[in-house]
Amino acid sequence: MGRSVFVVILFLGLAANAIAGSNLNRCFYSMDSNGDEMVTVDEFKAALPDSADVFEEADADKSGALDHDEWESFKSSKGIEEQHNS
Ligand SMILES: [Ca+2]
């Protein structure tokens, strides 16, 4: 019984992610764990471990860190709506 409840919760979590299309709608500031207004690759991987491969794509100037404009531009280019309430 407990196990099946767990499976249902897990499934609903996965379904919610699928409906969202991706988990790339993260707010920039929710990924900037040290608050320096730059998201390094380490911060990015910590926030989005399944999406680490998009870091280089989002890092338009190849500086090794994302600034807010780069992240917003990247999301816009993907048609991703930011969700501040997630
Ligand atoms: Ca940072």
TrEMBL record:
Q: Mind listing the GO molecular function terms for this protein? A: calcium ion binding
Q: Does the keyword Hydrolase apply?
A: no
Q: Which Pfam families match?
A: EF-hand_5 (PF13202)
Domain (EF-hand) spans 46-81
So which domain of life are we looking at? Bacteria
The keyword Signal is annotated on this UniProt entry:
yes
Segment forming the signal sequence: 1-20
Keywords in alphabetical order: Signal
Q: What is this protein called?
A: EF-hand domain-containing protein
Q: Which organism is it from?
A: Maridesulfovibrio salexigens (strain ATCC 14822 / DSM 2638 / NCIMB 8403 / VKM B-1763) (Desulfovibrio salexigens)
